[in-house]
Amino acid sequence: MDISSVFKAFSQTAHLKPQVQRQLSAIYLTLLSTLGTCLFGYYLAYSFPFLRDYFIPLVIGVMAMTIAIFFIPATLGNLSKRRVLLWTNGLAMGMLIQPAILPIMYSRDADLVYMAVGLAAALFASFSVATMVSSRSQTIYAIGSASMALSGLLWLGLLSWFYPSLALFSINLMVGIAVSCLYVVVHTHEVLELAQRGERLDPVTHAMLFFSDFVSLFLRLLRLLSTDRRRQEANEREGRRGGSKYERRQFRPTESAFRSCKSEL
């Protein structure tokens, strides 16, 4: 059984029409191509370090391209233009996140980056497929949970600002990961609702929303994994330090006894 047959089985379970499947394929192919341009932007900033000095122009460019994608009419004539804007947005986003990933890639924790990418892809695919096969009431419940989790995330961020602690920071990250996953559910449900009503889906707008969900999920997972790795290393250093002190205390009487025996001889 290949991937296409698995997706076909899920589509039949969710009662998706062939037209809806084609529109979903266009959205996810646009998403994959945008992720590819983001990866190219990362390696471009890695190969040319002077691009890191243009952080503020890149942020302004990303905001301007996002606004342009929303304001340019989603017609077939503007599809190529808006798609190029989305790819350029992904390229600039890859340059922006490169400074956050580079210290981890240069350290011994480079495996965390690949782990975060794999976990983000698995979570994104799992929640997308779960939304396709679930009922409408379950999806509405997930949307309500997303709004509640978002408000909790805002309160946790405000609380950690006034009372900084590692526990609040970890909880904030985990709630942020849950919010990112629930927003994948929200956007997938929105796409399915529009498609099942017979409306034409805009692959650029929905791919951009999915792209922002994936990047947010990846960055939060990377921060959580790197924080947990630093905590484990700190505990190991404390353990080695405590063990060496204990060994020195145990070794001193033996050394003094050896010296006394040597003096008697």
Structure description:
The protein has 265 residues and is mainly alpha-helical. Helix content is 86%, strand content 0%. It has 8 helices and no strands. The protein has helices at residues 3-13, 18-47, 55-71, 79-106, 111-133, 136-162, 166-196, 203-264. Helix 2 (18-47) crosses helix 8, helix 4 runs parallel beside helix 8 and helix 7 runs antiparallel to helix 8. The radius of gyration is 26 Å and the shape is globular.
What tags apply to this protein structure?
0% strand; globular; 265 residues; mainly alpha; 8 helices; disordered C terminus; 86% helix
SSE order and pairing:
Elements (H helix, E strand, L loop, with lengths): L2 H11 L4 H30 L7 H17 L7 H28 L4 H23 L2 H27 L3 H31 L6 H62 L1
